[in-house]
Amino acid sequence: MLGLIDPLLEEIGKKWQNRENVSFSSAYVAGKVAEYTLNKYMDEYKEEDSNILRRKKYTIIVGNIFDDFHSLGRSILANYLRISDWNVIDLGSDVSSEMFIEEAIKNMPSVIAVSAMIYSTAMNIKDLISKLNKLNLRKSVPVICGGAIFKFKPLLGKEIGCDASGKNAFEANRMIEELLVDYEFKTKST
Fold first, then answer.
1. What is the CA radius of gyration of the chain?
2. Rounded-to-10 torsion of CA 10, 44, 70, 133
3. Strand ranges inside 17-115, DSSP E
4. pTM assigned to the model
5. CATH code of the domain covering residue 113
6. Which of 43, 52, 149, 172 is least surrounded, with the fewest CB atoms within 10 Å of its CB?
7. What is the rounded CA–CA span in Å between residue 85 and residue 54?
8. CA distance 121 to 129
9. At what angle do helices 97-107 and 119-134 cross, to 10 degrees?
10. Is residue 5 part of a domain?
11. Does residue 73 contact residue 65 with C-beta atoms inside 8 Å?
12. Does residue 34 sit within a domain?
């Protein structure tokens, strides 16, 4: 079922972008239905096989950056990572740089995954990365970014200082594992 959500939402997004018979309210409702379905599926999944979630690999902090309230992508990512055995701390929407940093210091995550829907909120990620650098947290905690703007501008993640950016939640598991291997190599060789 999870493999059906992403293509459906991507199709709605393409129609929205091309101004094809998709109103804002239709896109919003589709997103809320997908979010509800995913959350319901996760609840049932946990009840059916709680052993699947027994092996927690690493901790990942996820959240939408300050001024960003588009929760669907972040919710899909958080749930998909949980299914893939990651320990996920979901900070929600409209998360300040200070809150990300406070949680990073408290929980020592392996990765921070931050989401933004539009260009102006993506620039708030740049502020987060700058503050993480000042505190020397970037040496041990990579930052990945995602959201619609990173699909439209694939190089934006690197431009604002993210270590990686993904197209969708379903490639995140592999991308994060590769990033962590690379980070471990860098920290051992310095």
1. 17
2. -100
3. 59-64, 87-90, 111-115
4. 0.75
5. 3.40.50.280
6. 43
7. 7
8. 13
9. 40
10. no
11. no
12. no
Reading the chain (190 residues) residue by residue, the pLDDT tens digits are 556 666 666 676 666 556 677 666 666 666 677 677 766 766 665 545 444 444 467 899 999 999 999 888 888 888 888 877 889 999 999 999 999 999 999 999 999 999 999 999 999 999 999 999 999 998 889 999 999 899 889 999 999 999 999 877 778 888 888 888 887 656 555 5
Q: 67 lies in which domain range?
A: 55-189
Asked if the structure places residue 131 within a domain, the reply is yes
Rounded to an integer, what distance in angstroms lies between the CA atom of residue 78 and that of residue 129?
A: 21
Strands 59-64 and 164-165, by their bridges, are unpaired
Instruction: Fill in the amino acid letter for 31.
Output: G
Structural domain contains residue 12: no
Q: Considering only the C-alpha atoms of the chain, give the largest distance between any 2 of them, rounded to a whole number of Å.
A: 54
Smallest CA-to-CA distance from 78 within 52, 126, 112 is with: 112
